[in-house]
Amino acid sequence: QLQASGGGLVQAGDSLRLSCVASGRSFGSAVMGWFRQPPGKEREFVAAVNWSGITTYAADSVKGRFTISRDNAKNTLYLQMNSLKPEDTAVYYCVKGEYLEVWGQGTLVTVSS
Fold first, then answer.
1. Burial of 57 (0-12, 13-18, 19+ CB in 10 A)
2. CA 89, 101, 53: angle at the middle one, nearest 5?
3. DSSP per residue, the chain
4. Which tens digits make up the pLDDT trace of 7-24?
5. 61-113 pLDDT per residue, tens
6. CA–CA dist 28, 22 (Å, integer)
């Protein structure tokens, strides 16, 4: 199971950090990622990180603003979001596995202009 938290209402330019706590013992060996679904739109990829945390990937729309990281000792995935824009408003989901096998429940991020 994945439990995401940290969403909320912020203003444009603000920062927010999302967390995702995973249960079970396979977190440390799994690819982890974040997806988001803006209101009325399709779900889209945000960022991913390999098992060690060394290799990361990010969508062009968030590169330079969002940073994905993980703490395997705490079974926790993070998404640091800086310079937030209204278009970042979405429900954010943490996802486990190279084939997106497990999804968290989502946390809502709302960015006002």
1. middle
2. 70
3. -EEEE--EEEETT--EEEEEEE-SS-GGGS-EEEEEE-TTS--EEEEEE-TTSS-EEE-TTTTTTEEEEEEGGGTEEEEEE-S--GGG-EEEEEEETTTT-EE---EEEEEE-
4. 999 999 999 999 999 998
5. 999 999 999 999 999 999 999 999 999 999 999 999 989 899 999 999 999 99
6. 10
